[in-house]
Design a protein that fits this description.
Mean pLDDT: 78
Shape: globular
Structural class: mainly alpha
Helix content: 40-55%
Strand content: 5-15%
Number of strands: 2
Number of domains: 2
Strand order of the largest sheet: 1-2
Length: about 100
């Protein structure tokens, strides 16, 4: 997206899901215009546990798990909060 790559070969009948933070990070006017002109829409979600009782504690626990895993792999210093939200979102989607 940022470098003007053709994303159509990666997208078929699948949903495109990301966090609001990823969309917010697109600051360049041309990139935003390109995003708006795509023939598909990005569904924006935040990481949440799939249980019926979603609590702040559950969300914090998930972010804590992502944080600790990034710490173990040595990636913590290079991951932004938005990056960790995307990882947490992926985790909740495969639960």
């Amino acid at each position: 997206m940022i470098k003007g790559s053709d994303l159509s070969k990666y997208i078929t009948n699948h949903k495109i899901i990301t966090t609001p933070g990823v969309i917010y990070e697109i600051k360049d006017k041309r990139a935003r215009e390109r995003l708006q002109s795509l023939p598909y829409k990005f569904e924006q979600k935040m990481p949440t546990p799939k249980s019926q009782a979603i609590s702040k504690y559950s969300i914090l626990k998930m972010m804590f798990l992502v944080h600790n895993f990034a710490l173990l792999t040595g990636d913590l210093s290079t991951l932004s909060e938005v990056d960790m939200n995307v990882i947490a979102l992926c985790h909740t989607m495969i639960e």
